[in-house]
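Let us practice reading a record.
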Amino acid sequence: MQERFLELKFTVHPLQPATDILMAELGEIGFDSFVETKEGMQAYIKKELWNPIDLKDVQILSNTDFSITYEVGEIAQANWNEQWEKNFDPILVDNQCMVRAPFHDRSDVDFDIVITPKMSFGTGHHETTHMMLKFILTLNIEGKNVLDMGCGTGVLAILASMKGAHSIDAIDIDNWSYLNALENVSGNSCDGITVLEGDAALLTNQSYDIILANINRNILLSDISIYSKHLVKGGILLLSGFYKEDLALISKECAAQGLSFQENLEKNNWVAAKYVF
């Protein structure tokens, strides 16, 4: 039987910090996948887990400092791909990397990535993913150990693998992202990637030359101290998933953990930033 999901489309004003708080609170009542939009965010939950009464526990919805409205719709997991195929065009990054669907022709670029996203986040269309791909293209990854936190479709890990990384751990807390990343890693013949389901608690004794984390501001602020413990001296941390006005806060926490700000990219008020340990 085909699984069905509910999609709640939220309009949020002002966007921050309300969107991050809303995401965290929805996660506590069973929502396990989110896509940020220019108007707010979309949140997904399995239909059988949905109880509208649970929204009374989402305190930010009653916070008068923010205006938050939403509408509820139903979506079949299979329909995700159908809608995506109707609207998805290949993404070209710096004339070096193409992110495309299986139904697109192969591209004549250095790095040709085939992604089938299903319910996962990370096709290259979103500003944060696009900027992270741009950063990865500038890095010397040959022979490096890499971590991709919040891997979504696995697209960042796949590019790192194509650029010659020695080994890559790709981690996501969402079950469908975990399964989708496995599918995309296999489809791109990236044998050096290990896909894991979970969060930063999975990190124990590992050490990495490069850590990629495209998540959201609150999770990044919580986990930067963990990332720093698993970076080698001189290691690189690439962060995205937050807005321009949050860069100072992110950089302050990185500095507290011994990470030096190097540079950042901006696109439509979204930011990706590079730090060195």
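A brief commentary: The longest strand covers residues 231-243.
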